[in-house]
């Protein structure tokens, strides 16, 4: 239980849209707002940048499904 606040803080700190993936498996840093920031970090060291598939923009909400009204008809037979 004591580790939970630490994990939440780390996840929030990594909530940016771009990740730098360092060469030779040296690690990943998903702390970049732009692709240019990511590429600058990797300059000269190899690796590649990718979009963070876990990124959630501030204020993002999960779309909700709307209930659709169903029409009930009666058979007049």
Question: What's the helix and strand layout?
Answer:
Blueprint: H1 4-13, E1 18-21, E2 28-32, H2 35-42, E3 48-51
Antiparallel strand pairs: 1-2, 1-3
Gyration radius, to the nearest Å?
Answer: 22 Å
Largest sheet: 3 strands, antiparallel
Q: Please give the alpha-carbon distance between the first and last residues.
A: 65 Å
Overall average pLDDT: 78
As laid out across the biggest beta sheet, the strand order is: 2-1-3
Class based on secondary structure composition and strand pairing: alpha+beta
| Quantity of strands, as a count | 3
Q: Your description of this structure?
A:
It is a single chain. The chain has 77 residues and is an alpha+beta fold. The protein has 2 helices and 3 strands; from the N terminus they run αββαβ. The protein has a 3-stranded antiparallel β-sheet, with helices on one face. The radius of gyration is 22 Å and the shape is rod-shaped.
């Amino acid at each position: 239980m004591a580790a939970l606040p630490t994990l939440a803080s780390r996840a929030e700190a990594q909530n940016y849209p771009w990740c730098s993936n360092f060469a030779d498996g040296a690690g990943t840093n998903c702390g970049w707002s732009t692709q240019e920031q990511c590429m600058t970090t990797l300059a000269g060291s190899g690796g590649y940048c990718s979009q963070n598939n876990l990124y959630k923009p501030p204020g993002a909400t999960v779309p909700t499904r709307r209930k659709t009204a169903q029409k009930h008809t009666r058979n007049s037979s």
